[in-house]
């Protein structure tokens, strides 16, 4: 078909809900390859994506299409020919920007290709009209110029033969045969020019409905052919995509392994912390038990202290009473001593007197 992939990426594919025209309906369960294709024979650009053997995107880029970024990782565009809106969800903003830049680039290329095609059509139509104008100088009837089927040329031939019939009666047979061949050649040239002119006029004045019909027929034919050769066309792109996907998976696995290693180290650290916490808990329980024992001993000591205080107070009271008794006895003893002293003095005086 002359169609080659020129850019590929991976994205999740969505289509707008045909009923609500608001909700997105996913057309792929996972990210698939989305590729830009260029058809060199028809000079058109297409966006194609496959989910297995099923084509979930088959959109021809036209100059009036617009790719819109609705978020950092999501973009969409409307395809009036397919009567739907496609949406793509990318893994990063960079992939979305790259796809949007390519869309704008190929849209501009499609516009230039369309302008060149129109210019070529106009150039093709101009020589055909000039050729047709030159053929009007032929002695054939004007109706033969505007004929679009095979019925008019025979009528022209009959008119030519009716005009040539008097000449054939007057001229030799060989001259009449040469004239007949000349008119047949003129008629063939006129039919060819008339067919070219008709094709150019039909192509230049085709309305929107005819274009849609041609597009629908082309899409059906392209879809039928695409189903047969799409796998062969996408082998290299899919292989690159698979290789890229494999590399991404390997990187993801490596990152997961590193993350797992970090998590295992963290788990070991947490286990150590748990063991330390258990040891601290055991120490706390042991200290709590010792504290309870100390509190019990403290209560016992407090009781003993209170008893000792009571005994001390009682002893102090007894000592105070004993002191008071001693004091009384000392006073009595002092009185007795004084009396004994007086008695001695008296006895001494008596002795002196005798």
Task: Output the keywords.
354 residues, alpha+beta, 8 strands, 68% helix
Provide structural commentary:
The structure is a single chain. The protein is an alpha+beta fold and about 350 residues long. The protein is about 70% helix and about 15% strand. It is built from 5 helices and 8 strands. It has helices at about 95-135, 150-170, 175-205, 210-235, 235-354; strands at about 5-15, 25, 30-40, 45-50, 55-60, 70, 75-80, 85-90. Strands 1, 2, 3, 4, 5, 6, 7 and 8 form an 8-stranded antiparallel beta sheet that branches. α1 packs antiparallel against α3 and α2 (about 150-170) runs antiparallel to α3 (about 175-205). It is rod-shaped. Mean pLDDT is about 75; it is low at about 130-175.
In short:
With 354 residues, the protein is α+β, with helices and mostly antiparallel strands. The protein is built from five helices and eight strands. It is rod-shaped, with a radius of gyration of 60 Å.
